[in-house]
Amino acid sequence: MKIVMAVIKPFKLEEVRDALTAIGVHGLTVTEVKGYGRQKGHTEIYRGAEYAVSFLPKIKIEVAVADAQVDRTIEAITSAAKTGQIGDGKIFVTSLEHAVRIRTGEADDAAL
Predict the structure, then answer these.
(1) What percent of the chain has pLDDT over 70?
(2) Is residue 40 pLDDT above 70, yes or no?
(3) Measured at the alpha carbon of residue 49, what is the angle toward residues 88 and 56, in degrees to the nearest 5?
(4) pLDDT tens digits, residue range 59-69?
(5) Where are the O-UMP-tyrosine residues found in this chain (predicted)?
(6) Burial class (CB in 10 A: 0-12, 13-18, 19+), 40
């Protein structure tokens, strides 16, 4: 089992969710986060004063999937989240040792 974590632009969330649902991924966790990469932020003007926005709003999606679904999950997220512009995001994959569904007690792949 793996955890696939993706950091994407906020307006791409619904497209990514729909793409994951289409390949059979039925659960995900979404967190509003802020950060920067190569974008390094930008400047904005508010009430006539210019100020720097160092951290940009992003969405972090975490999905637990079986090993066999990892490549399809990455492909679905990539195709749905891609705009071709800087700041599209990143995907990270880490190992998941154990998972338990609290309601039923199912473990590992059955819990996903």
Answers:
(1) 90
(2) no
(3) 15
(4) 999 999 999 99
(5) 51
(6) exposed
> Which residues in the chain belong to E strands, given as ranges?
2-8, 29-35, 42-46, 49-53, 56-65, 89-95
Kindly report whether the global pTM for this prediction surpasses the value 0.90: no
Structurally, how many domains does the chain consist of?
1
Residue with tokens 């966790």: 29
pLDDT value, residue 42: 62
- The residue range of the domain holding 59 is 2-110
Residue 72 belongs to domain with CATH number? 3.30.70.120
Exposed / middle / buried, residue 73 (Cβ in 10 Å: 0-12, 13-18, 19+): buried
